[in-house]
Amino acid sequence: MQDHSKDKNMSSIEQRASHTALMAAIHRFIASKEERPGFQGPDALSRLFLPPKANFFLSFSVIRNFTLKKLHKIVPGGYEYITARTKHFDHLFKVALEENIPQIIFLGAGYDTRAIRFKEFIQHTKIFELDAQTTQQHKKKLLHKNDIAIPSNTSFVPINFSKENINNVLLKTGYDPSQKSLFIWKGVTMYLPEKAVKETLSL
User: Fold this and answer.
1) pTM for this prediction
2) Among 14-18, 36-40, 72-76, where is mean pLDDT lowest?
């Protein structure tokens, strides 16, 4: 039987900003408010991408704790995983900037904030954020609304991973395949056809 859930998800992000990117931002925002030693997340800017009501209610610890319990029932360990993942990729990203790696490419960037949070470490590295155009437009709109400038070395590259070849898309944006690059792909793969994942990894 053919699984239509992936097709449905990929078609929906062509119509509106990614729901999964929002859920990841919610996890990161809650983590940024953590009071438990060792659990606090580093991404306070994730609050920018939350709907106003969620931003308000999640500012209260009792609501955050209630939300975490609900999230745990849905995906046990998901919160801890996303918090650890954020810290891990923060470290890799910062090291890459310190080593002045020429290019860093985020695949399915969503509401990633690393280019902003670590802008003081950026020297000559070019950063490419690849995602659905709807998600990128919403992200840029919210950053502009909050007077947060997008670093000049950061490029937003719209792509549909199910339909477009990543190599062809990148080559149109100033990406140089001859230079050393760091690719970061935190998620998305579970929503893509197997063929699209293999083609992307073969870059």
Assistant:
1) 0.87
2) 14-18
**Domain encompassing residue 53:** 16-79
Domain count, the chain: 2
Within this chain, do residues 96 and 195 fall inside the same structural domain, yes or no?
yes
Strands 181-184 and 154-158: unpaired
CA pseudo-torsion sign 8, 10, 15, 18: positive
- Would you state the structure tokens that stand for residue 16, as one six-digit string? 């509106």
Whether the CB-CB separation of 135 and 158 falls below 8 Å is answered with no
| Contact status, residue 113 vs residue 86, Cβ threshold 8 Å | no
pLDDT over threshold 60, residue 127: yes
Give the CATH number, domain containing residue 95. Answer: 3.40.50.150
Same domain for 74 and 97, yes or no, is: no
Task: Give me the residue label for tokens 């992000």.
Answer: 13
4-11: list long-range contacts, CB under 8 Å, 24+ apart. Answer: 6/162, 6/191, 6/192, 6/193, 7/162, 9/191, 10/160, 10/161, 10/162, 10/191, 10/192
